[in-house]
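hey so i finally got around to running the thing on that chain from the lab meeting. sorry it took forever, my laptop kept dying and i had to restart like 3 times. anyway pasting the input first so we r on the same page abt which one it is
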Amino acid sequence: MKFTAIKGRRLLFDVRRVPALLSGALVLAILGGCAAHTRMPFDPEAPQSHAFTRGTSPQMAYTRQPVPLKNGDLTHLDDEHYRVKFLRFPAYGKNGQKNNLVTAHYYKSKLPGKKKLVIVLPIWGVSDYPSVKIAEGLREHSRGDTNIIELLGERYLIDWEGAREATTEQEFLRVMRGQSNRFRDALIDIRRVIDWSETQPDIDPQRIAVIGFSIGAMIASSAVANEPRLAAAVLVMGGAHPQDVFATCLGRAGDLRTDVITRFDWTIERYLKELTPVFTPVDPAQFPGRVDPSKILIFDAKYDDCIPRNSRDDLWEAMGRPERGSIINDHQGAFFAMTPRGGNFIREEIYTFLDRVL
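ok and heres what got predicted. didnt touch it at all, straight out
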């Protein structure tokens, strides 16, 4: 069975923020194409604030069953090192995607033997640039030494319209609990991808990593803390405390916040207070000491205007204070460090890290 790949290309950056982004680009250009950043290496001798223990929280549990996955060949995307397949299976819960499906491109190495696997998460509905470029770069870098599953996310994971249309406080909080469930269900779908991967003769189940960007990094953080089969993770522009992000970020999150505060005559403090218990069950900070920090790489934005400082710091703490690179830019501008203008800095760092830990 043959499928046609359909990948919508969206701008990564909000056009309302062009002046700020241009200034970020100018800084990078002045620096000669190298992304300005500070680095905090992992110190294996530093005392940890939490004892290391692997496990899965009850709210992240699911009944493991064979994944009803269908696949088809995308032969027009095959290259010297990879055969490309289109994967799809029903989502564990509501994921906001067409027909409620989880879909992916699977880049299967043509080389013999079991290979490590990297699962690349999307920024659902916002941009496919980070996930597409990382998956592409991994193929070019590994030359068949790594299998890659690039999850697709054409539509928003978050039901922004449903949240904005809520007419009562109770209805709004019910919708937001649904968004928290979507975070959890996306995590479980990652675990189900691993279930399927374990059945594949070409995948080494001891060497599986996940990469997430922005909202995908938040989900990847909780995933690596609740899925012992994940050997490593790269978290780019993510954070802990989703409720703090909803209370801080601009764009659709800001529009929703303004509508809700105005409609229900709330303060920002009330908004944060109401959302905290909603998102606490999926907050990566709730799972400290669950990962080996030497197998985690974090990138954040030093002047992030979407992920607040406490969210970024608390994620770093929960992950055991792993290696951390802070790009000197805001949330969206920091993604320039993934592009040629930023010297492909983040991309090269990711490849080097995965070569070392997997």
